[in-house]
Design brief:
about 260 residues; alpha/beta; Rossmann fold; 2 domains; six-stranded mixed β-sheet; four-stranded antiparallel β-sheet; about 35% helix; binds adenosine-5'-diphosphate; binds magnesium ion
Length: about 260
């Protein structure tokens, strides 16, 4: 049984003069512990897919299933991380990370201990009492990662989480994310429009078409679990796979452009 599945999911908005079809007949299945990257041009419905799995939205037709149950609402089993870290500016790093569990009245000492472990894992040991304004963009996003992971979700949904970071920081965050994933085996569904990011991170890449969003290609990456960003490009098949992915993505982006031009 897959951990997450979308079966013939379609979603449209009632816009004038005609309805806007965002997703058309999407079918996908993600295994438990898998790292899947959704790659596609802007506006193709990537965030919408995450919103459906998160339970923020429901489709007009088809079904979204998580662990055998239809997704109807958000739940603590599915965490979400956005491009912006969305930290509470008046709370410390530690208080930000423990905010949710404290609301749920979890044991404070236990939660604090777990939070310290997570902050250590994301390289923020010693920054527990800093305020968000004292952190760089990458550090804030590490806090967001620790906060999302602390309650032990089965699934993490990541919506272009490193999109606002500079290139060096983004690479560090990608390495950190992969390391945390191998240590937890959480199921990850990660959205990006960056081909190299997808190639480094994913077990499997799903390429989406321009709107209406469909899955047009699937690429299982043969690079193994232990990956080094510096030597990845030397792996056999890397060039060929990158070429295939780039070609497919550019095709879709061009289709999108011509669709928008008169
Ligand atoms: N509430 C809404 N009403 C109408 N159109 C929307 C709404 N939300 C999103 N859309 C449209 O749905 C499409 C897909 O959006 P989204 O999933 O955010 O794309 P992506 O994340 O791939 O950039 C976009 O064209 C967007 O304009
Ligand atoms: Mg988006």
């Amino acid at each position: 049984m897959p951990h997450i599945s979308l079966d013939n999911v379609s979603l449209h908005y009632s816009a004038k003069p005609q309805p806007l079809t965002v997703l058309e007949d999407i079918t996908l299945a993600i295994a438990e512990g898998e790292f899947v990257v959704l790659l596609g041009p802007s506006g193709c419905g990537k965030s919408t897919i995450l919103n459906l799995v998160a339970g923020f939205q429901t489709p007009q037709s088809g079904s979204v299933i998580c662990k055998g149950k239809t997704v109807q609402r958000p739940g603590p089993d599915r965490g979400m991380i956005f491009q912006q870290p969305n930290l509470f500016p008046w709370l410390s790093v530690l208080e930000n990370v423990t905010f949710g569990p404290r609301l749920q009245k979890h044991q404070k000492t236990e939660v604090t201990e777990q939070a310290r472990q997570w902050l250590d894992r994301v390289g923020l040991a010693g920054f527990e009492h800093h305020a968000p304004w004292q952190l760089s963009g990458g550090m804030k996003q590490r806090v967001a990662l620790a906060r999302a992971w602390l309650p032990g979700p089965d699934v993490l949904l990541l919506d272009e989480p490193f999109g606002a970071l500079d290139a060096q920081t983004r690479i560090m965050m990608q390495e950190l994310l992969r390391k945390a994933w191998t240590e937890t085996s959480t199921t990850l569904l990660f959205v990006t429009h960056d081909v190299e990011e997808a190639l480094f991170l994913a077990d499997r890449i799903l390429i989406m078409s321009a709107r209406p969003g469909k899955i047009v290609d699937e690429i299982v990456l043969p690079f193994g679990r232990e990956r080094d960003i510096e030597t990845l490009a030397e792996q056999p098949d890397y060039r060929e796979i990158k070429h295939r992915v780039l070609h497919r993505v550019r095709q879709e982006a061009r289709r999108h452009l011509s669709w928008r031009l008169p």
